[in-house]
Design a protein that fits this description.
With 138 residues, the chain is α+β, with helices and mostly antiparallel strands. The chain is 22% helix and 30% strand.
Length: 138
């Protein structure tokens, strides 16, 4: 597996995002306002394996920190794609001088406990405000 990290300069909601994020179970993401071709707010990073899209990272910078999300194609799970995305997001945050990555696992997420455990196993910790945070290493 040769993963490639691609920053999307003018991100829009497209077929790849719709397939990977739009196909997520109800309660994971709130994407109801996005339509094919519409602006996809925030910064988007696409991960490809041999030209095939296997995941996405998203980052929105606020007050020196970055809210992040990641999504992996179900067919590419358990192959290190999520960790690759998380590492890429941290490098992006570090290059901007940001302090923390944070994520909010929605209470409606059908596999929220598993996602929370995965994030904790990758250095995130509960912050007391419902978020999971990880210090950006430079």
């Amino acid at each position: 597996m040769a993963l490639t990290w691609i920053h999307e300069d003018n991100p829009s909601w497209d077929a790849g995002k719709d397939r990977i994020l739009g196909g997520a179970p109800a309660g994971v993401f709130d994407l109801s306002h996005l339509r094919q071709g519409s602006l996809a707010p925030g910064e988007w990073f696409r991960v490809e394996d041999g030209g095939a899209i296997v995941g996405y990272g998203w980052m929105d910078c606020t007050w020196g920190d970055a809210e992040v999300l990641l999504a992996v194609d179900p067919s590419a799970r358990s192959r290190g794609v999520g960790a690759f995305i998380l590492d890429g997001l941290e490098k992006e945050a570090a290059s901007r001088g940001l302090n923390y990555l944070y994520n909010a696992v929605r209470p409606t997420h059908p596999d929220g406990e598993h996602v929370t455990r995965w994030l904790v196993s990758h250095g995130f910790a509960p912050s007391g405000d419902g978020l999971l945070k990880r210090r950006v290493h430079r």
